[in-house]
Design goal:
Helices cover 21% and strands 25% of the residues. By secondary structure, the chain is an alpha+beta fold. The N terminus is likely disordered. Bound molecules: succinic acid.
Protein backbone atom coordinates (compact mmCIF):
# COMPACT_ATOMS: atom_id res chain seq x y z
CA UNK A 1 0.00 0.00 0.00
CA UNK A 2 1.47 3.36 -0.99
CA UNK A 3 2.23 5.68 1.93
CA UNK A 4 -0.26 8.36 0.92
CA UNK A 5 -3.11 6.13 -0.21
CA UNK A 6 -6.57 6.39 1.35
CA UNK A 7 -6.98 3.44 3.65
CA UNK A 8 -8.26 2.19 6.98
CA UNK A 9 -6.40 2.49 10.28
CA UNK A 10 -4.25 -0.66 10.17
CA UNK A 11 -2.56 0.32 6.92
CA UNK A 12 -0.62 3.05 8.71
CA UNK A 13 0.48 0.91 11.61
CA UNK A 14 4.17 0.08 11.30
CA UNK A 15 5.01 -2.00 14.37
CA UNK A 16 4.06 0.21 17.29
CA UNK A 17 4.82 3.47 15.48
CA UNK A 18 2.03 5.21 13.60
CA UNK A 19 3.20 6.58 10.26
CA UNK A 20 1.41 9.68 9.12
CA UNK A 21 -0.80 9.20 6.05
CA UNK A 22 -1.12 12.89 5.40
CA UNK A 23 1.80 14.71 3.78
CA UNK A 24 1.60 18.37 4.82
CA UNK A 25 4.03 21.22 4.20
CA UNK A 26 3.57 24.66 5.79
CA UNK A 27 2.84 27.34 3.21
CA UNK A 28 3.88 30.38 5.24
CA UNK A 29 5.27 31.48 8.61
CA UNK A 30 1.82 32.75 9.54
CA UNK A 31 -0.55 29.85 8.90
CA UNK A 32 -1.60 27.13 6.50
CA UNK A 33 -0.26 23.91 5.02
CA UNK A 34 -0.39 22.28 1.63
CA UNK A 35 -1.44 18.65 1.29
CA UNK A 36 -0.20 16.58 -1.61
CA UNK A 37 -0.75 12.97 -2.63
CA UNK A 38 -4.45 12.81 -1.72
CA UNK A 39 -7.37 12.17 -4.01
CA UNK A 40 -10.49 13.57 -2.37
CA UNK A 41 -12.73 11.91 -4.93
CA UNK A 42 -12.12 8.74 -2.87
CA UNK A 43 -13.71 8.18 0.56
CA UNK A 44 -11.90 9.76 3.51
CA UNK A 45 -11.87 7.18 6.30
CA UNK A 46 -9.99 5.98 9.38
CA UNK A 47 -6.65 7.58 10.19
CA UNK A 48 -6.78 9.81 7.15
CA UNK A 49 -9.91 11.48 8.46
CA UNK A 50 -8.48 12.05 11.94
CA UNK A 51 -5.19 13.32 10.49
CA UNK A 52 -7.03 15.81 8.28
CA UNK A 53 -9.02 17.05 11.28
CA UNK A 54 -5.82 17.32 13.35
CA UNK A 55 -3.93 19.14 10.58
CA UNK A 56 -6.83 21.53 10.19
CA UNK A 57 -6.61 22.27 13.92
CA UNK A 58 -2.81 22.73 13.73
CA UNK A 59 -2.59 24.86 10.57
CA UNK A 60 -6.06 26.54 10.38
CA UNK A 61 -5.89 26.32 6.59
CA UNK A 62 -5.26 23.32 4.35
CA UNK A 63 -4.71 23.41 0.61
CA UNK A 64 -5.25 20.08 -1.14
CA UNK A 65 -3.49 20.25 -4.50
CA UNK A 66 -4.71 18.65 -7.73
CA UNK A 67 -8.33 18.00 -6.84
CA UNK A 68 -11.22 17.74 -9.29
CA UNK A 69 -14.27 16.81 -7.26
CA UNK A 70 -17.91 17.37 -8.09
CA UNK A 71 -20.54 19.12 -5.95
CA UNK A 72 -21.63 15.93 -4.24
CA UNK A 73 -18.08 14.99 -3.17
CA UNK A 74 -17.43 18.54 -2.04
CA UNK A 75 -20.56 18.35 0.13
CA UNK A 76 -19.51 14.96 1.54
CA UNK A 77 -15.96 16.11 2.26
CA UNK A 78 -17.22 19.26 4.00
CA UNK A 79 -19.60 17.12 6.07
CA UNK A 80 -16.59 15.48 7.76
CA UNK A 81 -16.15 18.75 9.67
CA UNK A 82 -19.77 19.38 10.64
CA UNK A 83 -23.16 20.41 9.33
CA UNK A 84 -23.11 21.99 5.86
CA UNK A 85 -24.75 25.41 5.88
CA UNK A 86 -27.94 26.06 3.93
CA UNK A 87 -27.81 29.75 3.10
CA UNK A 88 -30.90 31.79 3.91
CA UNK A 89 -29.80 35.30 2.99
CA UNK A 90 -30.45 36.65 -0.52
CA UNK A 91 -27.59 38.00 -2.58
CA UNK A 92 -29.35 41.24 -3.44
CA UNK A 93 -30.86 40.10 -6.75
CA UNK A 94 -33.32 37.85 -4.91
CA UNK A 95 -31.26 34.69 -5.57
CA UNK A 96 -29.82 32.58 -2.76
CA UNK A 97 -26.81 30.33 -2.63
CA UNK A 98 -27.32 26.59 -2.57
CA UNK A 99 -25.34 24.55 -0.04
CA UNK A 100 -22.64 24.08 -2.71
CA UNK A 101 -22.43 27.18 -4.90
CA UNK A 102 -19.95 29.19 -6.91
CA UNK A 103 -18.17 32.46 -6.22
CA UNK A 104 -17.57 34.17 -9.55
CA UNK A 105 -16.94 37.46 -11.30
CA UNK A 106 -19.49 36.45 -13.96
CA UNK A 107 -22.83 38.08 -14.75
CA UNK A 108 -26.07 36.17 -15.37
CA UNK A 109 -24.97 35.53 -19.00
CA UNK A 110 -21.65 34.08 -17.87
CA UNK A 111 -19.53 37.07 -18.91
CA UNK A 112 -16.79 38.51 -16.67
CA UNK A 113 -17.71 41.85 -15.12
CA UNK A 114 -15.32 44.49 -13.81
CA UNK A 115 -17.32 45.03 -10.61
CA UNK A 116 -18.62 41.75 -9.26
CA UNK A 117 -22.09 41.63 -7.81
CA UNK A 118 -20.89 40.38 -4.44
CA UNK A 119 -17.99 42.73 -3.76
CA UNK A 120 -17.97 42.22 -0.01
CA UNK A 121 -15.49 39.35 -0.52
CA UNK A 122 -12.83 42.00 -1.08
CA UNK A 123 -12.92 43.18 2.56
CA UNK A 124 -11.41 41.35 5.53
CA UNK A 125 -14.06 39.16 7.12
CA UNK A 126 -14.86 35.87 8.78
CA UNK A 127 -17.75 34.07 7.12
CA UNK A 128 -21.24 34.46 8.59
CA UNK A 129 -20.11 36.31 11.72
CA UNK A 130 -23.43 38.18 11.50
CA UNK A 131 -25.25 34.96 12.49
CA UNK A 132 -25.76 33.66 16.03
CA UNK A 133 -23.96 30.49 14.92
CA UNK A 134 -21.33 31.63 12.39
CA UNK A 135 -19.31 29.48 10.00
CA UNK A 136 -16.80 26.96 11.29
CA UNK A 137 -15.04 26.58 7.97
CA UNK A 138 -15.28 27.55 4.34
CA UNK A 139 -14.02 25.43 1.48
CA UNK A 140 -13.20 26.69 -2.02
CA UNK A 141 -12.19 24.65 -5.06
CA UNK A 142 -10.66 26.48 -8.02
CA UNK A 143 -12.62 25.75 -11.19
CA UNK A 144 -11.56 28.62 -13.46
CA UNK A 145 -8.74 31.07 -12.75
CA UNK A 146 -7.34 34.17 -14.40
CA UNK A 147 -3.85 33.64 -15.88
CA UNK A 148 -2.38 35.78 -13.08
CA UNK A 149 -3.75 37.14 -9.78
CA UNK A 150 -7.18 36.55 -8.24
CA UNK A 151 -5.48 35.59 -4.96
CA UNK A 152 -7.10 35.12 -1.55
CA UNK A 153 -5.50 36.40 1.66
CA UNK A 154 -5.80 34.97 5.15
CA UNK A 155 -4.82 36.52 8.49
CA UNK A 156 -4.21 34.65 11.74
CA UNK A 157 -6.34 36.17 14.52
CA UNK A 158 -4.79 33.97 17.22
CA UNK A 159 -1.29 35.25 16.52
CA UNK A 160 -2.67 38.78 16.21
CA UNK A 161 -4.34 38.53 19.64
CA UNK A 162 -1.26 36.98 21.24
CA UNK A 163 0.89 39.86 19.96
CA UNK A 164 -1.27 42.56 21.59
CA UNK A 165 0.20 44.39 24.60
CA UNK A 166 -1.12 43.19 27.97
CA UNK A 167 -3.01 46.43 28.65
CA UNK A 168 -4.87 46.14 25.32
CA UNK A 169 -5.77 42.52 26.14
CA UNK A 170 -7.16 43.73 29.48
CA UNK A 171 -9.11 46.47 27.69
CA UNK A 172 -10.69 43.96 25.25
CA UNK A 173 -11.54 41.46 27.95
CA UNK A 174 -15.31 40.92 28.09
CA UNK A 175 -16.14 43.34 25.22
CA UNK A 176 -18.87 42.39 22.78
CA UNK A 177 -18.97 43.49 19.18
CA UNK A 178 -22.21 43.79 17.22
CA UNK A 179 -21.99 41.97 13.88
CA UNK A 180 -24.50 43.13 11.32
CA UNK A 181 -25.35 42.10 7.76
CA UNK A 182 -26.98 45.46 7.15
CA UNK A 183 -23.90 47.36 8.35
CA UNK A 184 -21.63 45.22 6.17
CA UNK A 185 -23.68 45.75 3.02
CA UNK A 186 -23.60 49.54 3.58
CA UNK A 187 -19.90 49.59 4.52
CA UNK A 188 -18.86 47.61 1.42
CA UNK A 189 -21.20 49.40 -1.01
CA UNK A 190 -23.15 46.19 -1.71
CA UNK A 191 -26.88 45.77 -2.32
CA UNK A 192 -28.83 46.36 0.93
CA UNK A 193 -30.41 43.29 2.55
CA UNK A 194 -34.16 42.79 2.24
CA UNK A 195 -36.46 43.02 5.26
CA UNK A 196 -36.70 39.23 5.19
CA UNK A 197 -32.90 38.97 5.28
CA UNK A 198 -32.68 41.30 8.26
CA UNK A 199 -35.45 39.38 10.03
CA UNK A 200 -33.60 36.09 9.35
CA UNK A 201 -30.29 37.54 10.55
CA UNK A 202 -30.79 40.44 12.98
CA UNK A 203 -27.60 42.06 14.36
CA UNK A 204 -25.92 39.87 16.95
CA UNK A 205 -23.38 40.62 19.69
CA UNK A 206 -20.38 38.26 19.79
CA UNK A 207 -17.31 38.35 22.03
CA UNK A 208 -14.61 40.55 20.49
CA UNK A 209 -12.11 38.00 21.75
CA UNK A 210 -13.28 34.44 21.26
CA UNK A 211 -11.80 31.19 22.51
CA UNK A 212 -11.27 28.42 19.99
CA UNK A 213 -13.35 25.41 21.06
CA UNK A 214 -10.66 22.91 20.00
CA UNK A 215 -7.39 24.62 20.92
CA UNK A 216 -8.56 26.80 23.84
CA UNK A 217 -6.60 29.72 22.31
CA UNK A 218 -7.97 33.26 22.19
CA UNK A 219 -8.34 35.18 18.94
CA UNK A 220 -9.78 38.47 17.70
CA UNK A 221 -13.25 38.17 16.19
CA UNK A 222 -13.54 41.23 13.98
CA UNK A 223 -13.94 42.14 10.28
CA UNK A 224 -16.33 43.80 7.87
CA UNK A 225 -19.51 42.76 9.72
CA UNK A 226 -18.30 44.42 12.95
CA UNK A 227 -20.59 47.40 13.37
CA UNK A 228 -19.88 48.71 16.87
CA UNK A 229 -18.84 47.72 20.37
CA UNK A 230 -21.56 47.26 22.96
CA UNK A 231 -21.53 49.99 25.62
CA UNK A 232 -19.03 52.22 23.77
CA UNK A 233 -19.81 55.37 21.74
CA UNK A 234 -20.13 54.24 18.12
CA UNK A 235 -17.21 56.34 16.84
CA UNK A 236 -14.88 55.14 19.61
CA UNK A 237 -15.84 51.51 18.99
CA UNK A 238 -15.27 51.84 15.25
CA UNK A 239 -11.89 53.50 15.83
CA UNK A 240 -10.84 50.65 18.13
CA UNK A 241 -12.07 48.05 15.62
CA UNK A 242 -10.14 49.83 12.85
CA UNK A 243 -6.93 49.87 14.94
CA UNK A 244 -7.34 46.18 15.75
CA UNK A 245 -7.89 45.30 12.09
CA UNK A 246 -4.77 47.26 11.08
CA UNK A 247 -2.78 45.41 13.74
CA UNK A 248 -4.22 41.99 12.84
CA UNK A 249 -3.62 42.21 9.10
CA UNK A 250 0.06 43.17 9.19
CA UNK A 251 2.10 41.12 6.68
CA UNK A 252 3.59 38.78 9.32
CA UNK A 253 0.08 37.55 10.25
CA UNK A 254 -0.97 37.10 6.61
CA UNK A 255 -0.74 34.29 4.07
CA UNK A 256 -1.56 35.06 0.44
CA UNK A 257 -2.88 32.08 -1.46
CA UNK A 258 -1.93 32.17 -5.14
CA UNK A 259 -4.42 29.78 -6.68
CA UNK A 260 -3.43 26.90 -8.91
CA UNK A 261 -5.83 24.86 -11.00
CA UNK A 262 -7.11 21.98 -8.84
CA UNK A 263 -6.53 23.69 -5.48
CA UNK A 264 -9.09 22.92 -2.80
CA UNK A 265 -8.60 25.20 0.17
CA UNK A 266 -10.42 25.03 3.49
CA UNK A 267 -9.93 27.39 6.39
CA UNK A 268 -11.03 27.92 9.97
CA UNK A 269 -13.31 30.96 10.24
CA UNK A 270 -13.11 30.80 14.03
CA UNK A 271 -9.54 32.09 14.04
CA UNK A 272 -8.78 33.50 10.57
CA UNK A 273 -9.91 36.49 8.57
CA UNK A 274 -9.85 36.32 4.79
CA UNK A 275 -10.50 38.42 1.71
CA UNK A 276 -10.27 38.08 -2.05
CA UNK A 277 -7.67 40.26 -3.76
CA UNK A 278 -8.70 42.29 -6.79
CA UNK A 279 -5.31 41.79 -8.46
CA UNK A 280 -6.48 40.60 -11.88
CA UNK A 281 -8.32 42.02 -14.86
CA UNK A 282 -11.80 41.32 -13.59
CA UNK A 283 -13.66 42.51 -16.67
CA UNK A 284 -11.53 40.26 -18.90
CA UNK A 285 -10.81 36.95 -17.17
CA UNK A 286 -13.10 34.42 -15.53
CA UNK A 287 -12.65 33.44 -11.88
CA UNK A 288 -14.93 30.66 -10.66
CA UNK A 289 -14.58 28.84 -7.34
CA UNK A 290 -16.86 26.13 -5.96
CA UNK A 291 -17.73 26.95 -2.36
CA UNK A 292 -19.26 25.26 0.64
CA UNK A 293 -19.56 26.46 4.25
CA UNK A 294 -19.78 24.40 7.45
CA UNK A 295 -21.75 25.82 10.36
CA UNK A 296 -20.07 26.33 13.70
CA UNK A 297 -21.35 26.92 17.22
CA UNK A 298 -21.95 30.21 19.04
CA UNK A 299 -18.62 31.97 19.73
CA UNK A 300 -17.52 32.13 23.40
C1 LIG B 1 -15.00 34.18 0.26
O1 LIG B 1 -14.91 35.25 0.84
O2 LIG B 1 -15.62 33.23 0.76
C2 LIG B 1 -14.35 33.99 -1.10
C3 LIG B 1 -12.98 34.55 -1.19
C4 LIG B 1 -12.48 34.55 -2.62
O3 LIG B 1 -13.27 34.69 -3.57
O4 LIG B 1 -11.26 34.47 -2.80
Amino acid sequence: MAKHAVGPLAENDVGNAMVSVLKTTPVSDALGAEVTGQDLSRPVVGTLKSEILQSFRDHHLLCFRDQHIDQERMYDFASLFGEVENHKISLGDGSKWGAVHTITNLDADGNPVAKPFVNSNYFWHTDKSFLATPALLTMLQALELPPKGGDTQFADMTKAYAALPADMKRRLDGLKVVQSLEYMRRFTGSAPPTEDDIAAAPPVAHPLVRTHPDTGLKSLYIGMYSSHIVGMPEADGRALLGDLLDHATQPHFVYTHVWRQGDLVLWDNRCLLHKAVANYEMGKYRRVLMRVVVRGGAPH
